[in-house]
Amino acid sequence: MLPSRNKWQIVTFILTWVAYASTYLLRKNLGVIKSDLESELSLSKPQLGWLDTAFLLPYATLQVLIGPVGDYYGARKTLSTCLLLAAVSMVTCGQWSTFQMFAILYFFNGCAQSQAWPNCVKGLGFWFKKEQTSTLFGVWGTCVFVGGIGGTSLAVYLQSSYGWRYVFATPSYIVAVIGILIFLFLRTPEEVTAGKINKADQDAVNSKYSEVKSSPETSVGILQLLKIPMLAEIAVTTFCVKMVRYCMYMWLPMYLHQHLGYEKTEAGMLSLSFEIGGVLGSAILGYAIDKCLQGQTTKGCIICVVLSTLALVMFLVTSNFGIYFNILSMLLFGVFNCGPDPLLTGTLPLEIGQTSNRNIQAALSGFVNGFGSLGTVLQGPMIGLIVQYYSWEAILHVMIFICLIGTVTLMKAAFTKTRLQPQSPVLV
To answer: CA-to-CA distance for 407 and 425, rounded, in angstroms?
Structure first.
């Protein structure tokens, strides 16, 4: 065993956790200031929705198209560059007043952040064993939701204290500093041991996310990926889960302010209950699946997606019952909607990858996360148009329907797993 392996496990876990959490400092500010952009810059709701798309479209598509870039340049260089470029793209955003400039800057922000997830996973994966997948990614996945809480809280504070134009620069400086720390301290086992690691040590720290160079034996095309059993269904479920989650991320403060009548600052802080639920769900679900469901990841995710649908129905029915019902509904929905996310995009694709002799786990995970992120692209224009021409309540009905689609497709994946299990017992 490596003499300092435990120390480097902790260092790598913290660095990658903080790195991915920090990306939300440059995402969540837009959801907080949408009411200001509408009132002060006269942006329409469809335009506000297109700002979401300006960020999320390159974020989703580049994950799929250039995912292997981290294989060639390494997680340390790629991740640190991503964070620095994202910071540069956002630092001057508050100085502009036109829809076009906001869209351009958020487009570059999305391009830069597209490689953050796969390279955090690559950097983390070197140091942990294959048997730790569900628990590891359940706990590590809390960075998504803690980052969202931090991003919203910081944006609300800067908005209320200094005005909406100040919600961009400070988060950009923080992300830039984290990018520098990643470049200085993120390491692989080979770098730590100066290339003298032996095979037994490598096996001890190797994981399903090993950072490998792409080769004809390990690279697969999108059409080939779609032929792999269960992958398409899991990708569609991820699409639905992420679409609904980003509806809450990007529009919940505005919904609470305009539809339920909360003050801007109060609406921003109340929206954190959804993200607090996400932290709890992500931290608990992976451990519960390993301990209570004997590692049946698909079954655990199905239960959560069903309960998230019921929690959203509860939010719709009780929306006018007062603040305590609002907080409880958003908290429960956060637990059950956000909890499965790191398992759908991390654990399940890698378990499916066990059926292949090629090392295609990174391609599987990137495809599921990238395809799922396309759902986040569509939610912006969709919500903007529905709210403008129908109502806020119509949005909740659409979100419930999307959750039901995710439930059905994940159930189909479970049936496929059951059918294939005699031939491929390691699937899920």
So the answer is: 23
H or E segment at 68? none
Instruction: Give the span between the Cα atoms of 375 and 358, in whole angstroms.
Output: 29
List pLDDT tens digits, range 206-220: 444 344 444 444 455
Tokens (6 digits) for 258: 């305009």
Residue 356 buriedness (CB in 10 A; 0-12 / 13-18 / 19+): middle
Alpha helices, DSSP H only, in 66-198? 69-73, 75-90, 99-113, 116-125, 133-140, 142-162, 169-185, 189-192
pLDDT per position as a tens digit, 304-337: 889 999 999 998 999 888 889 989 999 999 889 8
Q: How far is residue 346's CA from residue 338's CA, in Å, rounded to a whole number?
A: 13
Tell me how far apart the alpha carbons of residues 403 and 244 are, in angstroms, rounded to a whole number. Answer: 7
- Reply yes or no on whether the pLDDT at 132 is more than 80: no
DSSP string for 328-397: HHHHHHHHHHHTTHHIIIIIHHHHHHTT-SS--HHHHHHHHHHHHHHHHHHHHHHHHHHHHHS-HHHHHH
- Read off the DSSP letter of residue 66: S
Query: Residue 145 pLDDT > 50, yes or no?
Result: yes
Closest by CA position to 271, among listed 241, 238, 315: 315
Give the pair of three-digit tokens for residue 303: 């239960």
Quick one: CA dihedral 324, 274, 298, 377, positive or negative?
positive
Instruction: Specify the DSSP class assigned to residue 95.
Output: G
Residue 121: partners with Cβ closer than 8 Å, 6 or more residues away: 16, 209, 346, 362, 365
Give per-residue pLDDT as tens, 230-263: 888 888 998 999 999 888 877 888 888 888 888 8
